[in-house]
Amino acid sequence: MENNPLYGSWLTRAYCGCGLALFYLRRFEEAIEQYQHAIELRTQLLPLDNPEYKNDLARAYNNCGNALNNLRRFGEAIEHCQHAINLGNQLIPLNNPDYRDNSLGAHVNCGNALKELRRFEEAIEHYQHAIELGTQLLPLDNPEYKNDLASAHCNCGSALYSLGKFEEAEDAIDESLKISRELEEQGIFWYRDDRETWFENAIEIYLNGSFNFLPELILEHLDPENSGSAPQSEKMHQDALEGLHRLFRERADKHPQLISEISQTMFKLERIRAKYFTGTASGAKLTAQFYEENVGDLKKAEEILKKYVEKIPSDPVGYQLLADFYLRRNNPQQAIITYQNALKIILSQPFENTQKIAILELLKILYILMSNSKDWRTNNDVDQGIDNVTNWYQDWIVTLNEKIRPEIKTFHQDAFDDLKEQRKLWREQHDDLLKTNYRQQTQIKLEIQLQIFSSAAKALPASIKMLIDSMVSAQQELWKKYEPQWETADETTRHFLLKEMVESLENTLKQVLLKLPDIELVEAEIFLKKHLGHKIWEQLSDDEKKFLKVGINLSQKEMTYVFAATSLGCAVETTLKTKLFEPIKQYCRKNQITIQYRNPEDFIAGFFDNNPKARLMLGNLVGGFNQAFHNGKIVTSPHNVLYLKQKLPHYQPNQAQQDYRHKALWNLLNIRNVLHYSSEQSEEKMQSMLDIILHNQQHGFYRYFFQSA
After folding, report:
1. Contacts 24+ apart (CB under 8 A), 121-126
2. Residue closest to 322 by CA, chosen among 360, 291, 354, 281
3. CA distance 576 to 462
């Protein structure tokens, strides 16, 4: 390389090419290694003052920054992008369009990292630099340059939206979509994925800004009568339907004039899909769901699902969606026929593992419906229901291919065993009230089966999917374990069984929350350090930090409020247990102090006394804390309260503070208690919980607790 710099240049380009390939394979760590090799070799060539060498080095820095962004290593990403920007500033006067476009990309990637760190104003400055560079390139009519400019506009819009500048955000996102339309008008479609992402962002921005123009925006990009539209984009149709659903739910009650416009837009989208789509189950489901839940037009919803089945008769999901609809509408006979059709379609396809799972779940649902188990009143009802299933199965099995009959018989036996277990339990019921409860549990079990079956088709982020899958699996295993006791238990026994089940679910969820990847929690950690201060943050254990980070991360998404609340509650529970109750337990054990019990169920005394059954959860911890410091209800012997007070010697609130903190802690317990039957969460409840734990500058739990210790 010393004799011929071209060799070094070629080698560094090879490293960059390899890095780019690894990046597209999402092997970001390996890509970064290749880019770092390229950067090291390129830097050695800089004394030659060759602009191509500088541009290649800038590209390597920028690509490395992009890979670091994907690993959420935003600080390092900013450093690399800034190096690329500095080199680009030296090259821009040379008026080479490639140099200008590379600098545009570096500004965008730097802005993206700053945006993730919630440094929105700085991010916008970089996006505006990128827009200025891209605008200078427009006369060249280069598709790549245009798409890069559109990306800068879109990201700028996203940052403006985060600052609440909805009008400016709309202008920016409109500009990005305008460029996308112009590209497709020219017959350039290979940037469609980007357009779909920007369209999704536009819907979110409009819903919080000029929501009344959302139907117009949607048709502008999906109506084939408009030049450059994308009527064949399934993702854009799905996003449009979801956007219209939200518009109806969130705005229609105060703006009734929207109802007609939403309905007309839905109708037009339906006709567009009929023309351009071969048909998708998700599209049919979303459209039918709108008419069923929001408009209340059940006939229209049924018609949409039927049309999909007629159009794509080879897709079993269509039959399943239609059968689910019939079941919701209390038409079990029609549901049975339609589920059987789904079964028939599945069996006509290659007999693979996914089909096997679907067959077993379908048989379980069918046997519950065919036996009419939720309406069993007499032994004759039970026998007739079992006979219905047996007769159907005997007629059905002989129609199947002989090769698959042995495996089908196994599935039948599993489903039939479930049904016989229900028969056994039913016959053990003698009290009319217990029979009623049993029928309710049968219905719940059917609904759980349907939910599990439907959720298999959902596409969720990997971390959230792990939460959902783990909890569903845990609930299934718990029900299998407790079902025999539950069905024959009286109300008092059921109360204690329920407590055991909830505790088990909470422990499972704690383990899942602690396993969520740290790579997704960088922003949450920055937020927590800012709000708690580094001094308090450093006093927390790894588990406390993890629970808090997960809670903050999940509190940003409506669909994960339940898990966010549980995680934040686990953080407080861990803090109280490890910083207050556990040290007292060790002290009493070391000094052989005799613990006083209020009664045999005094869990706090039992915990101090090393009773293995005294597993303190948040409710007992808060009760003991409030009794010691806020005149709370009696949960332990007054003698034990003295230990708690001695552990927090500087905790001396006045009466007003006592009243506030007493109420706040009980509110925290109620909001967090989501694994019980009252599990509904909302943005308001989520914000209340965050205020109790973090935001209140004087009374936030972590501030007053650690300042008292």
Report:
1. 121/163, 123/155, 123/159, 124/156, 124/159, 124/160, 124/163
2. 281
3. 31
Amino acid in the structure at residue 446: L
CA distances in angstroms from 642 to 454, 575, 621, listed in the order given: 53, 19, 15
Q: Are 302 and 335 in contact (CB under 8 A)?
A: no
Find tokens 């536009």 and name the residue.
Answer: 202
Q: Which residues contact 315 (CB under 8 A, 6 or more apart)?
A: 279, 281, 308, 345
What integer pLDDT is reported at residue 10 of this predicted model?
67
* Residue entry with tokens 């207050």: 580
Give me 286's structure tokens.
Answer: 């979303």
Please tell me the predicted confidence (pLDDT) of residue 606.
Answer: 83
Q: Is the pLDDT of residue 489 over 80?
A: no
Reported as a single tens digit per residue, the pLDDT across 556-572 is: 777 677 778 888 888 88
Query: How many Å apart are CA 397 and CA 415, to the nearest integer?
Result: 14
Residue 275: pLDDT over 80: no
> How far is CA 124 from its chain centroid?
27
CB-based contact 128:144 (threshold 8 Å): no
Burial label, 385 (beta-carbon count in 10 A; 0-12, 13-18, 19+): buried
User: pLDDT: is 220 or 432 the higher one?
Assistant: 220
CA distance 263 to 90: 55
**Cα-based distances in Å from 455 to 451, 452, 469, 525, 553:** 6, 5, 9, 31, 23
Which residue reads 């998700």 in tokens? 282
Which pLDDT does position 455 carry in this prediction?
A: 46
Section 609-638 average pLDDT:
78
Structure confidence at residue 653 as a pLDDT band (50, 70, 90): confident
pTM confidence score: 0.44
Report how far residue 134's alpha carbon sits from residue 224's, in angstroms, rounded to the nearest whole number. Answer: 29
449 has a pLDDT exceeding 60: no
Helices 257-276/281-289 angle, 10° precision = 160
Q: Determine the longest span between alpha carbons in the chain, in angstroms.
A: 97
Q: What span, in angstroms and rounded, lies between the C-alpha atoms of 277 and 227?
A: 19
Q: Are 589 and 560 in contact (CB under 8 A)?
A: no
Mean pLDDT score of the chain, rounded to an integer?
79
**Residues 446-472 as b or e (16 or more Cβ within 10 Å = b):** beebbeebeeeeeeeeebbeebbebbe
168: Cβ–Cβ under 8 A, 6 or more apart, which residues?
A: 157, 160
Alpha helix stretches (DSSP H) within 331-461: 332-347, 353-370, 379-397, 405-427, 432-455
| Count of Cβ atoms closer than 10 Å to residue 173 Cβ | 29
Given CA atoms 403, 409, 415, 419 in this order, what sign does their dihedral have? Answer: positive
